[in-house]
Amino acid sequence: MDLTAQLRSTIRDVADFPKPGIVFKDITPVLADGRLFRGVTDRFADELKGLGVTKIVGIDARGFIFAGAVASQLGLGFIPIRKKGKLPWRTRSAAYKLEYGESVVEIHEDAVEKGETVALIDDVLATGGTAAAAVKLLAQCGAEVVRAAFLMELGFLGGRSQLGATPVVSLVIY
Ligand code: AMP
Predict the structure, then answer these.
(1) Catalytic one of 62, 92, 147, 160
(2) Whose CA is nearest to atom 17 of ligand 1?
(3) Ligand 1 centre from 146 Cα, in Å?
(4) Residues 98 and 126 sit within 8 Å (Cβ to Cβ)
(5) Burial 119-153 (b: 16+ CB within 10 A, else e)
(6) What is the pLDDT of residue 121?
């Protein structure tokens, strides 16, 4: 079985979590399988090498798991983008729309340098609001996101269109 097929058969659908009508894509069975977890980070590392990337940026919280591992595999720095109020130093922030209401993500203002080329990693691209806010934050810092990589993409939600010109790679598309 190829990596995508293995992921499809391992990612667990949990109906009505965290609220009615949402099918939550549970990646914990992927993380618990050492070979599959390594297969995912190897694939991300392959996709991201040769692009001149200097930092790997992960999105709070499941994105950190993959972004940290990939950064380590490539010998690059890891940068967290977190939900509001979690980062201890001075931050820049970006607000984005949720289905109901708004959320805010933050980055340390000195996390990346002007002119840096970075890659973004998260577990799920859903509506794209979170990833678009992350790209916006990095642009404010003067960094360019040359690839946004996701374990899976919920294609029916059209999140890719939120990312404009940023090239997207997803290992599984639903
Ligand atoms: P969005 O901003 O709508 O693209 O949502 C992306 C973020 O929400 C990601 O960080 C995911 O971890 C999480 N997320 C959204 N939808 C799901 C889902 N159906 N299953 C698991 N995680 C999700």
Answers:
(1) 62
(2) 24
(3) 21
(4) no
(5) bbbbbbbbbbbbbbbbbbbbeebebebebbbbbbb
(6) 98
In this prediction, residue 101 carries a pLDDT of 84
Q: For ligand 1, is residue 37 a contact (CB within 6 Å)? A: no
Structure tokens at 2: 């190829």
- Residue 82 catalytic? no
pLDDT at 99: 72
| CB 59 near ligand 1, within 6 Å | yes
Is 113 a residue of the active site? Answer: no
Residue 129 CB–ligand 1 contact under 6 Å: yes
- Give the model's pLDDT for residue 28: 98
172 class by beta-carbon count within 10 Å (0-12 exposed, 13-18 middle, 19+ buried): buried
Q: What is the pLDDT of residue 98?
A: 84
- Of 130, 123, 87, 127, residue with least CA distance to 106: 87
Domain boundaries, the chain: 52-173
Looking at residue 11, its pLDDT comes to: 98
CATH 3.40.50.2020 fits domain 52-173: yes
Q: Which regions in the chain score pLDDT beneath 50?
A: none
Say yes or no: CB of residue 25 within 6 Å of ligand 1: yes
- Residue 29 CA to ligand 1 centre (angstroms): 17
**Atom 3 (ligand 1) nearest CA:** 127
Instruction: Give the three-state DSSP class for 2.
Output: coil
